[in-house]
Amino acid sequence: MKRREFLATAMAGSAAALTRTASAEPAMTSNREFYQLRRYMLQTGPQTKLAESYFGDALIPALGRMSMGPVGAFRLDIGPETPAYYLLIPSTDLEALTTLDLRLGHEEAFLKAAEPFWAAPATAPGFKRVESSLLAAFTGWPKVTPPAASASKGPRVFQLRTYESPSDRDHVRKVEMFHSGEFEIFANAGFHPVFFGDTLVGPRLPNLTYMLAFKDMNELNAQWDVFRNDPKWKKLSTAPHFAFEAIVSNITNLVLSPLDCSQI
Known about the structure:
With 264 residues, this protein is of the alpha+beta class. It contains ten helices and eight strands. Strand 6 (192-201) and strand 7 form a beta hairpin.
């Protein structure tokens, strides 16, 4: 009973968060995705290999059987508290994401493959802690778009950026800003966006998170230079509707590389 009440509360909170930002976006589409973004905090040593094996041999195959994917699995290269791995799990079924671990706990094939990590002893745990956020894709970018290099496992790096806002009003304005021309400015600068998500459940609300893909760090730096100097960006970022105050109060900027098992 308590579990059902918790899930009902979580779903209600997600619905309220969706309502909060609906006015900032175009009409919702039926194929809009939701994302579970996980951060696995690890210790240097056996935990990293154990986690990679768990992702590749157990978790990602199980998610595929649940029609979730493509799944991104990443190593944190530049950012605080390394080692850490990130997982991006997309689904068009919000309830499936909120009940994911409960579903996994009843799948025999998963439990068998996941045993070394899932049931690791307290004396040799598989991880230190896991943090998870639930996001809704921006309606202007409703689905994950992996870079072409993902299919061939070619060279690629990813930038994961989180924008925190000082108020719900400012957060809504920042989401609106993406839908008012910022997507096009990214495209003109040669970026390859992977996803844009509004955080429904997670820490440091209100915030949004998005991911960009690059061939390497040189391309990352070059494309940001183009973006910053684009006249359309200068016009958009100084428009009174968005520049009446600092609508972003903090930016978290991480650089990630894909694990071998990553589908993105």
